[in-house]
Amino acid sequence: MDVKVGHAHGWVFGLAGLATFGLLVSTATVGHGKAVPRPTRSGPSVTATARAIRPAARPASAGTVARRATHARAVSAPARPSASCRNGYVALTFDDGPDPVSTPRLLAALRRAELRATFFDVGERVAEYPQLARQTVAYGTAVEDHTWDHRSLTGASTSTPALTARQVIAELDRAKQAIASATGRRPQFVRSPYGDTSAAVQRLARELGLIEVGWTVDSNDYAGILTRQLVTNVLQVRAGGVVIMHDAARIPNTIAAVPAIAAGLRARSLCAGRLVPSRSDTPGWEHGTFHARPAAW
Hints:
Blueprint: E1 25-28, E2 36-39, H1 46-53, H2 65-70, E3 89-95, H3 102-112, E4 118-121, H4 123-128, H5 130-139, E5 142-145, H6 165-183, E6 189-190, H7 199-207, E7 211-212, E8 217-218, H8 227-234, E9 242-246, H9 252-267, E10 271-272, E11 274-285, E12 288-295
Parallel strand pairs: 3-4, 3-9, 3-10, 4-5, 6-7, 8-9
Antiparallel strand pairs: 1-2, 11-12
């Protein structure tokens, strides 16, 4: 008999529209809030975003946006940051990718700002856009597990039944295998959609070799806030903290905020680091504690 996974407190966030870009959209379940719009395949060419990464990119060939996305030019890894890291490290994380419109643009913005980050990607989207997951890893950032299809594991934020232990394992493991197949690297960390987790979910994750990671600072980028407010939110982070943002075409302000975020961290002698396991608790997450911390790449 399947075992029900216990509930954790959570919520559903409101979402902004796509009026900024005027994109044709369809609904897909992503974000750590509600289902949010994703661009349809008739949306803007991803080859155009690739030009932002490398001006000499080849002209777009005929085909769908999805096919163009998988052929985006690889982004070279950023140079080693010259800023002092004497005050420590923070982790910048982006959920819900890969996205054929936003991922190349976000990687280009991070490269220009000499930042590296951790991407918590949805397994079925990695299976759909494996080249984008490979491009993310080739850039020098990490791709980690955000479940297979972004369902709430406990149902706390979506008022749905908690998944059984067998279903939770399938959600985590399918995404883990998709990421490993696309990138050649097995994820080490997992983030539950909406932050809906429990002791049972975390135990099952550990059995799969995954460590649950939450956040200490929520950027609230999904709420359609102005870029300057987004920057202010992110820069509340302290050394050892973890920031959650999103890799989604409907949230252009996240990409626009990257230069100011980089400048703000440099001014405080903080560097964006990678996630590593930690024996001690990382506090500050509204859903509890987690055992990961930022460190030098």
